[in-house]
Structures are given as C-alpha cells and as structure tokens.
Amino acid sequence: MSEIVRPDSEHLAPENPDAPGLPAHRLRRTDVDPIATKRAERQVANLFLVAIIATVGFVVAFVAFPSPHKYITIIPGVLQDISASNFFLGMTLAISLLAIGVGAIHWAKKLMSDVEIVELRHPSASSAQDRAEFQEVFETGVASSGIKEYKLIRRTLIGAMLVLPIPALLLFRDLGPLPRKKLSTTAIHKGVRLVVDGTQAPLRPSDIPIGALVNVVPENLQAIEEAAGTLDERGKDALMIIRMRPDQIIAQQGANWDVEGILCFSKVCTHAGCPLGLYEQQTHHMLCPCHQSTFDLSDAGRVIFGPAARSLPQLAITTNADGYLVAAQGFTQPVGPSFWERS
After folding, report:
1. H-helix or E-strand containing 317?
2. Model pTM greater than 0.85?
3. CB pairs under 8 A, 24+ apart, for 194-202?
4. How confident is the model over 26-82, as pLDDT tens digits?
5. Residue-range domain boundaries for the chain
6. C-alpha distance from residue 190 to each of 42, 256, 315, 316 (Å)
7. Which of 23, 104, 136, 180 has the greatest number of C-beta atoms within 10 Å?
8. If one looks up domain 182-327 in CATH, what number appears?
C-alpha cells in the first residue's frame, strides 16, 4: 500500500505578508533585467505596428477589390474560388484586432505591475473619501502600467486605436447607396408584354383561369440583365398576375386597370422588400412570409395586417393587337420597401 506523503511547511513558499494565503511574490525577468524589459517593449510595439499595417491593408483591399465577385485560389483544393474581397477584408481586420489583443496581453504579462494587492470588501458609497481613493488607485494603476514610462508603446497603441475605426467607416459606407430615384423607375413601360418568369411565354387572358396566380416579368427584362451583367433590375420588376371575377374587385389604384378580372401587382413587399407568394384564393389576401404583412388584392392591394406602411403597387395592364397582356403604363409609385426619401 503506497504511503500518502503530506507536504511539510518547509517545502511551501513563505506567505506574502501583504497578501495572506499567497506565496511570496516572485519577480519576473523583465522586473530585474533592463534588456528583457526593452525587448518586451519592442515586442508589444511591433504588435501594435502590425495592427496599424493590417488596418491600412484593409483600406487597400477595400479599394483594390470593390466587387465581391472576383474569385481567387489561396490553397488549391482547400481555399479556392473564394471572394478576394471577403478574404482580404476579413484577414486584414482579423490581424489588426488580433495584434492589438495579443499586444495588450503581452504588455500586461511582461511589463505591467503584477504585485498582489489585497482589497478588503466594504459597502459602496459615493463619498468624497471614496472618490479620492479611486483617484489614488487609478493613478497607481497608470503608474504601474508604465504607460508614461514606455513612450514607444504609448505612441503605437494610440496610433493603433486611432486607425481602428477606419474599417467601421468603410463598412458603413459599403452598406449600399441611397435608393434615391432607383426604386421610382423600372424597366416596365407602356406596351411591354408580360411573360411568365422562367419560360418567357407571353400570356393571353384565356391562359389564366379564375383563382390563378402567375409570376411574370416584363419581356425586356432578360435583355436588360444581359446588357448590364447583373440581376439588379429583377428585384424591382418581379410581378404577379391574379385573376378573380370582375364583381369581386372592390377597388383599384386606377380606373379600369384590370383585364376581365386580371390584376397585376408588384411582387415585392412594401415593408422590407421580401418576395410575396402566399396567396389565399378565397379571400384574395396576399401574405408576406417574412413579417406577415397582408394585402387585399381585391381592394387595390390595401394593407390589412402587419408592419407594411403602404399598399402594394398595382400595374395597369391591357392587351395588345395580338391579344397578349401588356403594361398600359409604368408604375405610378415606387416599388419595393418604403424609405424615408420617398416623396
């Protein structure tokens, strides 16, 4: 049976008289070796300099890669076909934050005072004596940190903290331009045929039974997208056609905007821009799946429930000489989510 050995008091480090229960304070190498102190100071300063360089790199990457659609390969088979913008913006910002954090930790472990301090618990109070004691403790902390003594660390830390908000300013700017007049104009104009989204098939009134909902787009949308090289226009020009009996139509946003009970509305919710599609055939209500805004399509797209602040924009339609459904005119109000710049 093994013997249980209990530590003798002579093998224990002597207690610290200033901190009962703790062993005697042991000095670090940087506390007694000026060369080690200077080396630690340079290490901390270098980390803060790395933070500054990485932040500048963030700005360079932001300018060099304005589009997230440029792809690069870092490690074949592991990191390939990744967005150059996302990669370099993420890496430079991560390095900047990491360097500041590691530098602060290294500073605290190597150069700041690590003397054990005992602070007795006492009721909190806002007396003048307490404020004076706090001021004394604060000044002691400033002195023990060496922020005044190590000028190189102080200057590089201030520099790192001053440039750190720059990425935040760029990210806020990159949230996107103001809509201005962009939501007030679409590719839809008088005479443009409405075709089925996906198949590009034109529609006649006889193709749409009562109670049906068909997702449509203007016929010229595909040409606009190919010319621009983006799908930006689709977000504004998505439409839906609903057919009901003419006597079920309570109101429209213009006189005689339907064709034999066929109505056309924007498919974009006026609250946050989500795509609509949950149609209740019996009530003619259109429900937004994102925040449950509900529109009555038989009553000029009026909002009957939810956070949407305005009716769903309706498009006036008619038929052309060949009998196909076409736009009688463009939208008379902005499509998409509400915004405060809207007149």
Report:
1. strand 317-319
2. no
3. 194/218, 194/219, 194/239, 194/241, 194/264, 194/317, 194/324, 194/325, 194/326, 194/327, 195/219, 197/238, 202/324, 202/325
4. 888 888 899 999 999 999 999 999 999 999 999 999 999 887 778 888 788 777 778
5. 9-116+128-173, 182-327
6. 71, 15, 10, 9
7. 104
8. 2.102.10.10
